[in-house]
Amino acid sequence: MTLVSTLFLSLFVTVAFVPIFRGVAVRAHIMDVPNERKVHSSPIPKSGGLAMALGFCIPILLWLPPDRFVVSVMIGSAILVAAGLADDMYVLGYKSKFLAQIAAALVVILYGGVRITTLGTLLPEGFVLPPALSFPFTLLVMLGVTNAVNLADGLDGLAGGIAMMTFLCICALAFRSGETAIAIMSLAMLGALFGFLSFNTYPASVFMGDAGSQFLGFVSIVLPLKMSQAYSPLSPVLPLLIVGLPVIDTLIVMSERIRSGRSPFVADHNHFHHKLLGIGLFHTEAVFIIYLLQSIFVLSAYVFRFYSDWFILALYLVLSGAIIVFSHAACVYDLRIRRFDLIDRVIKGRLKILKDKNRVLHVSAVVLYYLLPALLIANCLLAKDIPDYATVLSLILVPFIICCWALNNRMLGNAVRTILYFMIPAAIYFSQDQPMSFSGLDFSLVYLGSCIVCLVTALITVRLNRRENSFRSSPMDFLILVIALCVSPLLNSIMDPQKARMFLIQILIFFYCYEILLNEKRKGRNIATATTVGALLIIALKGALL
């Protein structure tokens, strides 16, 4: 229960505070102004890191005992968030950044006891690094990864998505190894990242800033180092794969700068994501490719966690070598991609007629407007064993949503979306063992068929809709799918595997369809809001009476 509460609380805190800090950033002029290296065209507030830090810290302060390691991570994170905020406001030099990073690293090394003392079988058997070597080596690794993640923050959703897969891997490894504190800390970061990415996915409305990227890089290396050293059965080389792509990207960029006679600390537009954009990929396509590469790194870390240290190192070098070869080829041979739309080529005549007349689009939208809310209401009606806190929370949220709705408050969309993120899994979970029957008739097949119809109509709506502000598939969809695949084995331990699969499939369908509904015109948003209010009232009423 603590693990689930940590995830949801960090998500809720982050989603609640991102709009607040965004408004403060606009008034305080803490903005990321476009230049020749930036891909965005208008100033964007860079205050998301503050909301992420709060989302990360609050569950940890509530549920973890204040031992030396936990306290050191909190202090180190606070140092980097403060220094990053100062950099976002006043643009500090790289020397000032390094001093803050060194101070944060020293806290976890000296007080938290995080230190690289062994490299496993890469060194002679039984060899332990002496303090004169382990101390500076640990410091160097922490500084390198912190800056690598900081430098990876170059596209909307990029650094956050990469880090999200890193912490998914850390959480899975910690859960399997019985490292409860690290599992809770990684879940707190996952919730914070998921909440932040809902605002940071292309086109982003807020950036994490240096306050977020430095803090993110720091925690992403401290946790795996703590987990893979000392007497851990995990390979000490495993953090290489867990951190993954940012490290090799930073090494490539810095080596290219040095080779060309420039300072390795002078920013340019030669990162891996710049090269992907240079070959003709769109913003979201470049981010998706990097997500895919990072997922290969972290999946390899999980699958091969007990393999030999030499094997893991060789695997990392092979994956890194492939990226190096591509980066070199993209520069030397001026690679460009050619686009080919299969659907438009094969059935372009018929498809054009359908698009022009909007017949299919209109029908699919109508089905989505009414069938999806009906399915959510059905799950709420079938729900039982509703906990008391869900009843109380529903009674609190109903008047809040109604007030925002009546006042046409800008918070309404984010509030409804956040509540649905919590309510959909809960409603499906509490109703999954209930028979879908009425007067002797079994409606389970009807329910399943309706879910499929919703998914099909949602896909049609996305494919045929050409409005600029309509929903578009994004790399965030890939992250949600990865999360579902990672959560599936954990659910198998508390429910039947077949039920676990159906549970996840239903959640994914509902999430995807509701995102489309919330991004449609006012009618769609109003229907989603009304459904949310109705579902909350049903949960509150059933929780109070049953």
Strand content: under 5%
The CA-CA distance between the termini, in Å, is 22 Å
Structural class: mainly alpha
Which spans of ≥5 residues are poorly predicted at pLDDT below 50?
A: none
Mean pLDDT: 82
Silhouette: globular
Topology order in helix (H) and strand (E) letters: HEEHHHHHHHHHHHHHHHHEEHHHH
Can you summarize the main beta sheet?
A: 2 strands, antiparallel
Q: How many individual domains? A: 2
Structure, described:
- The chain has 546 residues and is mostly helical.
- The protein has two domains: 243 residues, no CATH class; 204 residues, no CATH class.
- It is built from 21 helices and four strands.
- Strands 1-2 form a two-stranded antiparallel sheet.
- Strand 3 and strand 4 form a beta hairpin.
- Helix 6 packs antiparallel against helix 7, helix 17 runs antiparallel to helix 20 and helix 20 crosses helix 21.
- It is globular, with a radius of gyration of 24 Å.
- The mean pLDDT is 82.
Features:
21 helices, mainly alpha, two-stranded antiparallel sheet, 546 residues, globular, two-stranded antiparallel ribbon
Summarize the structure.
This protein is an all-alpha fold and 546 residues long. The chain has 21 helices and four strands.
Sequence-ordered SSE layout with sheet pairings:
Layout: H1 2-28, E1 31-32, E2 44-45, H2 48-63, H3 68-90, H4 94-111, H5 131-151, H6 158-177, H7 180-200, H8 209-228, H9 238-243, H10 245-259, H11 272-278, H12 283-303, H13 309-332, H14 342-357, H15 359-382, H16 388-406, H17 412-431, E3 437-438, E4 441-442, H18 444-464, H19 475-492, H20 497-519, H21 522-545
Antiparallel strand pairs: 1-2, 3-4
